[in-house]
Design a protein that fits this description.
Chain A: One of its GO terms (molecular function) is ATP binding. The complex is a heterodimer of chains A (about 260) and B (about 300). With about 260 residues, chain A is α/β, with parallel strands linked by helices. Chain A is built from 10 helices and 12 strands. With about 300 residues, chain B is mostly helical. Chain B has one domain: MetI-like (MetI-like fold), CATH 1.10.3720. Chain B has a two-stranded antiparallel ribbon with strand order 1-2. In chain B, a hairpin with a 5-residue loop joins strand 1 and strand 2. In chain B, helix 7 packs antiparallel against helix 10, helix 9 runs antiparallel to helix 12 and helix 11 runs antiparallel to helix 12. The longest helix of chain B has about 40 residues. The chains are: A alpha/beta (about 260), B mainly alpha (about 300).
Chain lengths: ~260, ~300
């Protein structure tokens, strides 16, 4: 395996409005150091993809952003959202996750109806007005491009949907809460190409209203949908730039090798 | 080539081993099935003899409350009414289950969702130890602690359904707890993640997602606990008072199906009505345990349909 100099780093400054940023985020699983000094800023209403080989820490990093690593790993450093460090102990993590939603690799709807899946989080937050619930149900399913397929089966079990539909349901479930930021952890890696392209279209449309951060190990996917791309390698952020720069003219050798498939 | 052809058609060491293994498995299974069938036949034939040979009406057996199998009433009918025992058996079972379920599920939630690994590791053997204590020990503790305690508070003898319930509560608690733990552990991890990622609190996650998904398993745990309570003989016999009377309240001496069996079976002669009547009680017990089993299976199947992906 080739070794790379991790001090070589290229991080592009973001000029637009920033939705979320991290300063020197470190992650430890017990004694092993999983993320080293990750400092990135994510532009508002853009899609940023995190790429890298398996075990490069991109998913671990993503999970820090809405505190899903609590009790699993030790996360140090600052995560700034609306001028607040949400990585501090005093922060209400439930509130964080209401503003920063997450969709996982495997579609994971609850064993409830489609309607209950969408309204689960809403009801938890005390939204009980029937009209409001119905409105949110409809808009979130429409935004996730699922409405036309399920509008007659809203009371059917979510587990009866196909994998791609389930994943779009999970996206709809997240955006029903009207979060600011949507984190997606390889949302299409368990899906077939057609479902994948539907998810990608959905994300493209969503990026008008949401800041999207997506982990993917499919480089074509990253280049197709994202505006910015960060390349992770062995827990280090190697390069962060506009997607078209990363894929056409990478600044760092490691990035170039990874993108051209000449790696490891 | 010919060599391979002949070998293809010949049995070898491997095929003989295969055959041998199959024979062993089938004969063991056959033996077990035969045993179960024999037990069923024996109890049924003995238990039904009360109705076929001794002429007791089945309906009277279930609904009358005088249990004097040796005597006849003024019309010459034998007095074999099992209702008091059936009622008492159900009372202690249901009360013990009602009392134990909240504690058991609470303990199970604590062990799977709230306690850290060390706490769960400490509690597991504690619960298992409770299962392993012989029932006579529970009965003895009940007799020397619970009965005087109840006597002191409510008066009377202290023997009765309440004492039986309290003893059974302690006995079924570990059963329900450990089965509930299994059922909670089998809820997929991603349900918890999905719920937390949507901003649900830990309590909302436990209450609305995990308990719902585990509900069939929890119900099964409770029914297994009830089956254990229903079948428990010795400990109950020591604290219930053993009087075949319709229970008037929770502290009057009573008798369950099982306690009647253990106290009386040595005092009767095979083939007589008093003996046959006891077998009828055993038949009721057998039927009930069969029913509990069927319920568990039914719930299990429903749960599978609901949770399949």
């Amino acid at each position: 395996m080739k070794t790379y100099d991790f001090s070589q780093q290229y991080i592009n400054k973001i000029e637009q409005e920033v939705a979320l940023s991290t300063n020197n985020v470190q992650v430890h699983y017990g004694k092993s150091h999983a993320i080293f000094d990750a400092s990135l800023s994510f532009p508002r209403f853009q899609i940023t993809s995190l790429i890298g080989a398996s075990g490069s820490g991109k998913s671990t990093y993503l999970r820090c952003l809405n505190r899903m690593n609590d009790k699993i790993a030790q996360v140090d450093g600052e995560i700034i959202y609306r001028n607040t460090d949400i990585n501090s102990k005093k922060i209400n993590v439930y509130e964080v996750r209401r503003h920063i939603g997450m969709v996982f690799q495997r579609p994971n709807p609850f064993a409830k109806s489609i309607k209950e899946n969408i309204q689960f989080a809403l009801k938890n937050n005390g939204i009980n007005d029937k009209n409001e619930l119905q409105k949110r149900l409809e808009t979130s399913l429409k935004d996730a491009a699922l409405w036309d397929e399920v509008k007659d089966d809203l009371d059917k079990s979510a587990l009866a949907l196909s994998g791609g539909q389930q994943q779009r349901l999970c996206i709809a479930r997240s955006i029903a809460m009207h979060p600011d930021i949507l984190l997606l952890d390889e949302p299409a890696s368990a899906l077939d190409p057609i479902s994948t392209s539907k998810i990608e279209e959905t994300l493209k449309l969503l990026s008008k209203n949401y800041t999207i951060i997506i982990v993917t190990h499919n480089m074509q996917q990253a280049s197709r949908i994202s505006d910015y791309t960060a390349f992770f390698h062995m827990g280090h952020v190697i390069e962060y730039n506009k997607t078209k720069n990363i894929f056409t003219a990478p600044e760092i050798k490691a990035t170039e090798d990874y993108i051209s498939g000449d790696f490891g | 080539m010919d060599d391979i052809q002949t070998r293809l058609q010949k049995s070898s060491r491997a095929t003989r081993q295969d055959y041998f293994g199959k024979v062993i498995c089938y004969s063991c299974i056959g033996l077990i099935i035969l045993l179960v069938a024999c037990i069923l036949y024996f109890i049924a034939s003995k238990g039904l003899a009360t109705f076929t040979q001794n002429g007791v009406k089945f309906w009277n057996f279930l609904t009358q409350s005088d249990w004097k199998p040796g005597d006849v009433d003024k019309y010459g009918n034998p007095q074999v009414g099992a209702l008091p025992m059936i009622v008492t058996s159900f009372s202690v079972t249901i009360l013990a289950a009602l009392l134990a379920t909240p504690f058991a599920i609470g303990a199970a939630i604590f062990m799977t969702e709230i306690a850290n690994k060390k706490g769960a590791k400490f509690l597991q053997p504690v619960i298992e130890l409770l299962v392993g204590i012989p029932s006579v020990v529970y009965g003895f503790i009940g007799l020397s602690l619970i009965v005087p305690f109840i006597r002191g508070i409510f008066g009377g003898t202290g023997f009765g359904i309440l004492s039986g319930t309290l003893v059974l509560f302690v006995m079924v608690l570990p059963t329900i707890t450990s089965l509930s733990v299994d059922s909670l552990k089998s809820v997929p991890m991603h349900y918890r993640q999905a719920s937390l990622a949507l901003g649900a609190t830990r309590w909302q996650t436990i209450y609305k997602v995990i308990l719902k998904a585990a509900a069939p398993g929890l119900l099964t745990a409770v029914i297994f606990g009830m089956a254990r309570a229903f079948g428990e003989a010795l400990a109950v016999q020591m604290v219930i008072g053993n009087a075949v009377l319709m229970p008037k309240n929770l502290i009057s001496p009573a008798s369950t199906l099982t306690s009647k069996l253990t106290t009386e079976i040595g005092n009767t002669v095979m083939g007589t009505l008093p003996n046959n009547a006891l077998w009828s009680l055993a038949l009721v017990l057998l039927f009930m345990s069969l029913l509990f089993n069927l319920i568990v299976r039914f719930i299990g199947r429903r749960g599978n349909i609901k949770n399949e992906r």
